[in-house]
């Protein structure tokens, strides 16, 4: 049965983007208390379904997809450039697709200005009007104002017109920087972002037989399936070990393991990956608070997500990207690596930073395990000894050595040399995920 809280969330999802929402309105329309409506609206805000904008109110917004998080809303632009909204506040929730710098003739400017873009321009009233009529927002640089009929047009079109004291070049640099910062930000990935939903999942009912397990095994190639009761609550798991040598007509409820490990949509990717490695689990059921099956998450789902977030889609580079690019295998021995200390890898004193040193050890260890075809590395414990500071432009030799390796774990010793002198050591305890 759907709770009042879930009912309100579904109602909010059904509203069109830009629709205003209030506690009293929701409470009246759905026949719930103000408190229930308030809590549900706050939850919708946490889920990215609504946004509260100053002097506008709570607005239904389009939830940002992770693959499009390089885009900004106009409200975010206002905060970035310390802007003042002159008109069109009702459109602050909208997302801009690109920005255009208006340093050209009007005809040429309008060829590049399109709907959902942002025109950055100075005190050119005609350009403000043409941009708004094309469906674009306007950012006026140099601290200039605009005419009242332009502000009324912005309100009518629900497109923000913003003023900032910064010059055009500075504003463009600030917006670019904000986009870049979002691109290199490693967002936390949750089970809800990557799991296979209920209607696409494979599962068994308590009254199914062993024969049905074999049917699902052929369809999915999985060997582990959740078992649900008549209310779709997860009450057990069945694996290949449970059904081996059993007759086809034996009921699943007689063979299943009860009280299985489950996760929820808000469980982090790191947590579920650790569980799968540590317990040797291939598939984990995803449930809601009432233990109803929402879907499943498989080892393949987790590996795919881990591989996607290892390399960010940005044009610029993170420190990990710089470390990986600079780490080169030597010709004479594939388990020895070399790297040069670049300016980005140093601290304010011009020596190799501790964080980069740690990344070098981890990256070298990861490559060593891949060389031995042991799988991907998940660091469990890391002990590092900084013996001597390493200057900028120094050449490093990194020597990882595999001390122990089992099916599920590995222990690696790493030595770092500069000019044939030992400058640091590390001991890494890691779990392994098969590729």
TrEMBL record:
Do the record's keywords include Transcription regulation?
Answer: yes
Where would I find the CBS domain in this sequence? 195-255, 256-314
Pfam families recorded = 4HBT, CBS, DRTGG, GntR
Which organism is the protein's source? Virgibacillus tibetensis
Record's PANTHER family? CBS DOMAIN-CONTAINING PROTEIN, CBS DOMAIN-CONTAINING PROTEIN CBSX3, MITOCHONDRIAL
Keywords, sorted A to Z: CBS domain, DNA-binding, Transcription, Transcription regulation
Top-level lineage group: Bacteria
Checking InterPro entries in the record gives: CBS_dom, CBS_dom_sf, Diverse_CBS-Domain, DRTGG, HotDog_dom_sf, Ser_kin/Pase_Hpr-like_N_sf, Thioestr_dom, Tscrpt_reg_HTH_GntR
Q: What is this protein called?
A: DRTGG domain-containing protein
PROSITE patterns noted in UniProt = CBS (PS51371)
């Amino acid at each position: 049965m759907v709770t009042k809280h879930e009912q309100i969330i579904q109602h909010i999802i059904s509203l069109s983007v830009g629709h205003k929402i209030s506690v009293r309105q929701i409470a009246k329309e759905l026949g719930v208390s103000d408190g229930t409506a308030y809590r549900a609206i706050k939850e919708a805000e946490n889920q990215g379904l609504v946004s509260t904008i100053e002097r506008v109110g709570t607005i239904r917004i389009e939830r940002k997809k992770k693959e499009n998080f390089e885009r900004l809303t106009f409200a975010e632009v206002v905060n970035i450039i310390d802007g003042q909204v002159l008109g069109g506040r009702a459109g602050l929730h909208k997302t801009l697709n690109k920005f255009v710098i208006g340093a050209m003739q009007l005809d040429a400017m309008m060829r590049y200005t399109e709907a959902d873009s942002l025109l950055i321009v100075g005190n050119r009233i005609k350009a403000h009007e043409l941009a708004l009529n094309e469906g674009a927002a306007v950012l006026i640089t140099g601290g200039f104002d605009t005419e009242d009929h332009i502000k009324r047009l912005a309100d009518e079109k629900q497109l923000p017109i913003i003023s900032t004291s910064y010059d055009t070049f500075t504003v463009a640099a600030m917006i670019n920087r904000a986009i870049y910062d979002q691109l290199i930000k490693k967002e936390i990935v949750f089970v809800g972002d990557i799991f296979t939903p209920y209607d696409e999942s494979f599962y068994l009912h308590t009254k199914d037989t062993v024969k049905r397990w074999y049917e699902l095994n052929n369809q999915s190639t999985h060997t582990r399936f959740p078992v649900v009761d008549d209310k779709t609550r997860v009450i057990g798991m069945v694996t290949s070990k449970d059904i081996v040598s059993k007759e086809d007509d034996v009921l699943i409820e007689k063979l299943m393991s009860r009280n299985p490990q489950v996760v929820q949509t808000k469980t982090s990717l790191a947590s579920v990956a650790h569980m799968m490695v540590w317990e040797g689990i291939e598939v984990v059921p995803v449930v809601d608070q009432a233990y109803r099956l929402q879907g499943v998450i498989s080892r393949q789902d987790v590996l795919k997500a881990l591989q996607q977030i290892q390399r960010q889609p940005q044009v610029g580079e993170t420190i990990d990207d710089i470390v990986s690019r600079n780490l080169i295998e030597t010709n004479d021995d594939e388990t020895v690596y070399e790297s040069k200390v670049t300016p980005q890898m140093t601290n304010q004193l011009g020596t190799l930073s501790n964080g980069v040193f740690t990344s070098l050890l981890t990256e070298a260890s990861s490559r060593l395990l891949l060389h031995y075809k042991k799988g991907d590395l998940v660091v469990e414990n890391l002990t590092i000894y900084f013996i001597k500071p390493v200057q900028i432009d120094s050449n490093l030799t990194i020597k990882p050595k595999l001390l122990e390796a089992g099916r599920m774990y590995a222990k690696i010793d790493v030595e770092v040399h500069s000019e044939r002198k030992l400058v640091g050591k590390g001991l890494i305890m890691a779990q392994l995920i098969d590729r």
